[in-house]
Amino acid sequence: MKRNLIILLTAGILAFLESPLSAQSKYEESIKYWEDGPLTLADFSRRTVPASNGVISDLWYGWETISDRNKIGNLIYMTPRVRTFMDKLNSWVVISEFDKQQQLYLQTTFDMAEMVGRQYQKDLFTAEEPYKVQEFYRRTLSSSVDSFQQESRYGRDSSVVAYYAAKIQEQLAEEPEAPEPPKMIQFKTGLALGVFMGYTCNYLLTGLSERNGPLHFFNFGFDIPFSQRIFLTWDMGLTSLYNLDCTGISKNGYDWLNGQSTEAASITFDLGYRVIDKPYFAIEPFIGAGVLGVSQTLPRDMWNNGEPVSSSLNGLRVESGLTCDYKIRRHYFPMENSYDEIILRFKLYGAYSNMPAVLGPTWSINMGIAFGYDGWITSWRK
Questions:
Q1: Handedness of CA 97, 99, 101, 106 (dihedral sign)
Q2: Rounded Cα–Cα distance for residues 228 and 192 (Å)
Q3: Contact at 8 Å (CB) between 85 and 33?
Q4: Closest to 248 in 3D by CA, of 297, 208, 291
Q5: Mean pLDDT throughout 331-354?
Q6: What is the pLDDT of residues 42-60, one digit of tens each?
Q7: Backbone angles phi, psi at 272, to 5 degrees
Q8: How many H helices and E strands in the chain?
Q9: How far apart are alpha carbons 182 and 204 in whole angstroms?
Q10: Is residue 12's pLDDT more than 90?
Q11: 47-55: which pairs have CB atoms within 8 A and are 24 or more residues apart?
């Protein structure tokens, strides 16, 4: 019994895994792309009588938009490619009426869809609103095909069919099948947001560092780019200090204890401007202000109704320095109106902190490294 159950479960799992593959295969068999070659009788389902309006064939066609990946240096950008296809399941012919003239009529309709699709693709490169461009060309194609159908009496007028066929072939020869994309870096930036995390070393020239060495912070924060050059950065640093020499530090009636865990935190807002912005790197001087704090949790008997209470030293902090971003990778997606940079950030700056309770004015030299991501919403630059 158990063996049979295992066999049934295995068969069910295999059928489940096989089903999507089978559906995908069926879909691919039901579609023919323009580049696959001329239409043949095998591409159509067959009927024995015309439609109620006397039409003896019907071609269902459309466009599929895919993205091609391109790479120049560290920039990866996607360009749209329009593929013209026909739906074999819904396209049909009356078998007794299918001849070379009717085949040419259907092929010319398919070629017309390819021709308008190439024009559509070319305009997609610079479209600020791709869906409006798509709708315009769908209407353009619908109007052109409708005129062709009426003038040729749905393929019955051989002279009209021959005229349209020759005309479309000339246009296809003049219109490249794969238009050369423009320089994809030509865009305007709009709303943006970035995130980063990393490490910063703060070496205080007076106060804590004289007795304990530098402060090592885990940093994280956000970039708010106002453009590709102007950045507002919110930066928070956290660290725990052990075996700290707290001799002489007293606050809120509590003398700090040596060797007890002590927390340090910094929060700053920096405003920077990229004076150099190249494909692989950017250099950004900045100025900023914020708070630097050091705290130690009070003994349990000094807590407030069982809630931990800390003795804290806080002071205003101002800083200025230089940031250098190495751009590991950049991406531009015209169809999604987005551009981003994956960066490795190096930071060197000086800071002045004033914690008057005990430490007094404190200067520091600081160095940091972080991994980050900045992204923009874009529009085409005309």
A1: positive
A2: 9
A3: yes
A4: 208
A5: 90
A6: 999 999 888 888 889 999 9
A7: -130, 160
A8: 5, 17
A9: 52
A10: no
A11: 47/92, 47/93, 47/94, 47/95, 48/94, 48/95, 48/96, 49/94, 50/94, 50/97, 54/154, 55/154
Residue 186 CA: distances (Å) to CA of 57, 268, 343: 46, 34, 21
* Identity at 306, one-letter amino acid code: G
Q: Which ranges constitute the DSSP H helices of the chain?
A: 2-29, 100-124, 130-151, 158-174, 208-212
Nearest to 232 by CA among 221, 222, 224, 220: 224
Q: Which amino acid is at 54?
A: G
DSSP 41: G
Token pair listed for 118:
């190439």
Residue 195 and residue 223 in contact, taking contact as beta carbons nearer than 8 Å: yes
* Residues in CB range of 294: below 8 A, 6 or more apart: 208, 241, 262, 263, 264, 312, 313, 355, 359
Find out whether 334 and 122 touch, Cβ atoms under 8 Å. no
Give the residue carrying structure tokens 């070319």.
Answer: 122
Percent above pLDDT 70 for the chain: 84
Query: Which residues are 219's β-sheet partners?
Result: 198, 237
The span from the CA of 75 to the CA of 280, in Å, is 9
Q: Which of 263-272, 281-290, 329-338 has the least mean pLDDT?
A: 329-338
Q: 245 or 111: whose pLDDT is higher?
A: 111
Give the predicted TM-score (pTM) of the model: 0.71
Are the C-beta atoms of residues 118 and 179 closer than 8 Å to each other?
A: yes
